[in-house]
């Protein structure tokens, strides 16, 4: 029988493999370190920035930028009611693909992905220093965040075994390869446009800035930085993304667009206005994009990746079946703590494991009905295989972490962790909890194999060939 291939999280690549002795030292060092803080811009820079926004047509009726626990934030200067506008930013102050296209580097950025062209634009403006009209904005951008893309190797060793680590490494490799391309094809070829030096670290910084400061519907092709509005921080207690912002048109035919940010809740004078960034993101995504996580079980996820191996003797039939059902050769299933399995996971698993005496279901006469059959157990052999493979994958994945959930929980309770260590411990505990949950679902299923109803029995029942007590009915000739 063809066994399902479940890809467990990739192992730490060799440069990051650390001896257990080294890891112990690291935990202690990080536990004792102070809250990591990047230095905040001076009061004068904040005043400059506010004046710059007002001089360009921005409207800020009720907030001021100022220091808050999350870095900079927007502080209410009077009581602000729910749904009240806190800042309006005209389109000419947004930094998007149009800004780049109409700039001096526009001619060399055609065809680039929006994020790459905006990244080049910001880095170039930075190298221009005082000569850049964007200086007041550039001056208030943080030099780093707690996103895992900015973590040292020591810090990354704290998420050994996690999916977040492999994603972080993958993202950094992607940024590095994009940088190598633009460096060769644009920066070095247009020295007149890029006289200052731009390094991979600069490119990674700007990537982090774009990921952490873009609003949820302003990504991809619509990517835009909205100065000032992007000082708004996230509050996990705000459970709706509605009301927070909209794009409006002013003037004849709405030609002069502006970005309007609203307070989703009543805010007292002196307190910070916040929004909900994105309800859909998992803790791993929050950690990667923004550098924080929530203690909310709905954000604790683990992604199972299943694939139909090319070496599977029924590869073509199985591929046809998954594609007919809107899936691909490789499928990703996000499992969320405390929630039931994604409905398509079990049929996909059963299909991948299908073989032997069950292979007749792959014949073309079943093509229109097979997915329905796969939603229920096919055969004991098939069901046993999926339980075994999933449980082995969970066991394998769990063995890759350095700590147990209990150890992580004790560390969290100690209350002694810096902001990055809090993320590391929260992420690895969350992933393990979900893996344990998946394992227990398939352990229970394994213990019920004898009592499940399989395809052949259902078929006999449909044909009226099984009696009330499960006995096969024979007719006398
Ligand atoms: C859109 S910016 C908000 C302005 C930012 N605080 C600053 O100083 O420029 C998003 C970044 O703010 C910080 N941040 C926002 N909400 C946060 C939260 N609830 N907890 C921790 N950091 C937060 C993170 O560094 C995140 O990457």
Automatic annotation (TrEMBL):
GO terms for molecular function: [ribulose-bisphosphate carboxylase]-lysine N-methyltransferase activity; protein-lysine N-methyltransferase activity. Keywords: Chloroplast, Methyltransferase, Plastid, S-adenosyl-L-methionine, Transferase, Transit peptide. Signal peptide: none annotated. It is found in: Plastid, Chloroplast. GO terms for biological process: methylation. InterPro entries: Rubisco_LSMT_MeTrfase_plant, Rubisco_LSMT_subst-bd, Rubisco_LSMT_subst-bd_sf, SET_dom, SET_dom_sf, SET_RBCMT, SETD3_SETD6_MTase. This is SET domain-containing protein. The lineage of its organism: Eukaryota, Viridiplantae, Streptophyta, Embryophyta, Tracheophyta. The keyword Phosphoprotein does not apply. Substrate binds at residues 213, 217, 230, 245, 277, 290. Pfam families: Rubis-subs-bind (PF09273). CDD domains: SET_RBCMT (cd19179). Residues 61-278 form the SET domain. PROSITE patterns: SAM_MT127, SET.
């Amino acid at each position: 029988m063809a066994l399902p291939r479940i890809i467990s999280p990739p192992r730490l690549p060799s440069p990051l493999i650390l001896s257990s002795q080294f890891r112990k030292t690291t935990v202690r060092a990080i536990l004792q370190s102070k809250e990591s803080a990047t230095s905040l811009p001076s009061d004068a820079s904040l005043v400059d920035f506010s004046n710059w926004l007002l001089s360009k047509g921005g409207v800020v009726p009720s907030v001021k930028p100022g220091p808050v626990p999350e870095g900079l934030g927007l502080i209410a200067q009077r009581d602000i009611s729910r749904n009240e506008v806190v800042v309006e930013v005209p389109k000419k102050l947004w930094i998007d693909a149009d800004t780049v296209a109409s700039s001096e580097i526009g001619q060399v950025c055609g065809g680039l992905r929006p994020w790459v062209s905006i990244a080049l634009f910001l880095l170039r403006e930075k190298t221009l220093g005082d000569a850049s009209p964007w200086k007041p904005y550039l001056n208030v951008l943080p030099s780093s965040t707690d996103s895992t893309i900015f973590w040292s190797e020591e810090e990354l060793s704290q998420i050994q075994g996690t999916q977040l680590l492999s994603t972080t490494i993958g993202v950094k490799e992607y940024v590095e390869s994009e940088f190598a391309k633009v460096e060769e094809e644009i920066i070095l070829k247009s020295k007149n446009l890029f006289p200052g030096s731009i390094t991979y670290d600069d490119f990674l910084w700007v990537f982090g800035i774009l990921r952490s400061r873009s609003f949820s519907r302003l990504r991809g092709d619509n990517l835009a930085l909205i100065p000032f509005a992007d000082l708004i921080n996230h509050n996990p207690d705000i459970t709706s993304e509605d009301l927070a912002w909209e794009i409006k048109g002013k003037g004849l035919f709405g030609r002069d667009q502006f970005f309007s940010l609203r307070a989703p809740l009543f805010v007292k004078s002196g307190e910070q206005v916040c929004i909900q960034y994105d309800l859909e993101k998992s803790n791993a995504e929050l950690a990667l994009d923004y550098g924080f996580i929530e203690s909310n079980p709905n954000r604790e996820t683990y992604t199972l990746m299943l694939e139909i191996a090319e070496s599977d003797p029924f590869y073509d039939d199985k591929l046809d079946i998954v594609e007919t059902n809107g899936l691909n050769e490789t499928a990703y299933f996000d499992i969320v703590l405390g929630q039931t399995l994604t409905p398509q996971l079990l049929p996909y698993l059963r299909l991948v494991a299908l073989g032997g005496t069950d292979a007749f279901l792959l014949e073309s006469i079943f093509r229109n009905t097979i997915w329905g059959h796969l939603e229920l157990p096919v055969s004991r052999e098939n069901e046993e295989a999926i339980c075994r493979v999933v449980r082995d994958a969970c066991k394998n994945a769990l063995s890759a972490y350095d700590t147990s959930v209990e150890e992580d929980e004790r560390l969290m309770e100690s209350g002694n962790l810096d902001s990055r260590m809090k993320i590391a411990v929260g992420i690895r505990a969350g992933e393990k909890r979900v893996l344990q949950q998946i394992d227990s679902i398939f352990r229970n299923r394994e213990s019920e194999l004898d009592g499940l109803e399989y395809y052949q029995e259902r078929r006999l029942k449909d044909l009226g060939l099984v009696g009330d007590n499960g006995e096969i009915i024979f007719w006398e000739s």
